[in-house]
Amino acid sequence: MKAIVSVINDLSTDQRVDKVCGSLHEIGYEVVLVGRRRRSSIRLDARSYATVRMFLLFERGPLFYLFFQLRLFLYLLFHRADVLVSNDLDTLLPNFLASRLKGCPLVYDTHELFCEVPELQTSPLKRSIWKSIERFIFPKLKYVFTVNDSIAKIYSEEYRVPVHVLRNVPRKKNVSDTGGYKTAAELGLPSTKKIILLQGAGINIQRGAEEALEAMQYLDQAVLLIIGSGDVIPRLKQMSRELRLEGKVLFIGRLPFQELRLYTHLADLGLSLDKDSNLNYRYSLPNKIFDYIQAGVPVFVSNLPEIRKIVEQYGVGVISPDHNPRNMATLMAEKLSDEALMKVWKENTKLAAEKLCWEEEEKVLEEVYRNILEK
Fold first, then answer.
1. Other Cβ atoms closer than 10 A to 123
2. pLDDT band for position 166 (50/70/90)?
3. What is the pLDDT of residue 295?
4. Phi, psi at 127, each rounded to 5°
5. What's the CA gap between 37 and 35, in Å, rounded?
6. pLDDT at residue 12, rounded to an integer
7. Where does residue 200 fall: left (phi above 0), alpha (psi -120 to 50 degrees), or beta otherwise?
8. What crossing angle do the helices spanning 287-294 and 257-264 adopt, rounded to 10°?
9. Which residues contact 49 (CB under 8 A, 6 or more apart)?
């Protein structure tokens, strides 16, 4: 059985899709992961499955989406597949059309409330187009996954289809996967200060990054390490210069996830500060939360229901009551200086990591795909 898995990104930092492809390979599928190649794309590490990155003349805007949809549809139509796997709404239409023409099953993995993202809230026309596609296809789907209970409930109630929850948790940490951990000095980080980490492939507006940076004005014993990409990164760099925080705020671009683990492992506190500004953020459960926990890093998070559930259940960090930079700085300083509390949190992350890992979560995925395999 051959599964073609498609995404709109360049494959390099998408941990969830990599884990899904790896699991499908392990249970007997021949897997091809299809995405795009950007001019700025970083290298891909060797994987257990095949990868294809399509180069498009346009990298953003309406023409990019139009040509991506057409190019993906043609690829899916003219390559053999027994199962098609669509990741997020921006790949669903070509997958749906190809699955109907080829007569093969379609699996939809939606990583968020796509039509509720901030970028679409400011563009009613774009939102209307994507929502129309969702309303047309979603009720016809048989196999659907999403990232948490809240989003699953919203989709299943709106479209009257069952939705499986597959949380975006990492595999259990393995030092050999990284070639061995490195010291702060080896990675060019200060070894005498606490490291507060904000990582992610979508460091965008309304995700608390600006306030986290401003909070560093009031923290002397720590540095803020920002690793990843997103729309707000240029603004953060400008703010860092304006506030004269260059030595206290360090920027590293996107990294392959195996390399990212080296930095995550060194952090003292991991940030996830999405704001309750839209439904998508309200019910988000970012994979960075689980990456921090798997690396033994306590978390400092915003007060959102799915995130709060994890922090309170496992006792792995603190929930910030607001996004006021001074208040956050005070709370972070208080927790970082409490060695006994930090030790308890770190011990709790070890216990949580045994449960919040892909080896446990993939059982949900395997059950669905084995059923498809046997039909």
1. 11
2. very high
3. 94
4. -60, -40
5. 7
6. 85
7. left
8. 60
9. 21, 22, 24, 25, 30, 31, 32, 33
- Rounded to 5°, angle at Cα 59 from 56 and 63: 80
**Which residues lie below 8 Å from residue 267, measured CB to CB, with a gap of 6+?**
195, 196, 197, 225, 292, 295, 297
Helices (H) and strands (E) in the chain, counts: 16, 13
Strand, coil or helix: 318:
strand
Spatial contact of 254 and 300, defined as CB atoms under 8 Å apart: no
Question: Does the predicted model carry a pTM greater than 0.90?
Answer: no
Q: Compute the Cα dihedral for 238, 279, 269, 291 and give only its sign.
A: negative
Report how far residue 186's alpha carbon sits from residue 188's, in angstroms, rounded to the nearest whole number: 6
The pairing of strands 83-87 and 2-6 is: parallel
Tokens of 120: 């679409």
Q: How far apart are the C-alpha atoms of 75 and 36, rounded to whole Å? A: 12
Question: Nearest 5°: CA angle at 171, between 273 and 354?
Answer: 85
Q: For the chain, how big is the Rg over CA atoms in Å?
A: 21
Q: Check if the beta carbon of residue 172 is closer than 8 Å to that of residue 357.
A: yes
Q: Residue 14: which pLDDT band, with cuts at 50, 70 and 90?
A: confident
Q: Work out whether the CA dihedral 291, 297, 298, 302 comes out positive or negative.
A: negative
Banded model confidence at residue 121, pLDDT cuts 50, 70, 90: confident
Q: Are 366 and 27 in contact (CB under 8 A)?
A: yes
Alpha carbon distance 288, 347 (integer Å): 19
Q: Return the SS3 of 304.
A: coil
For 231-337, list the strands marked E by DSSP. Answer: 249-252, 269-272, 299-302, 317-320
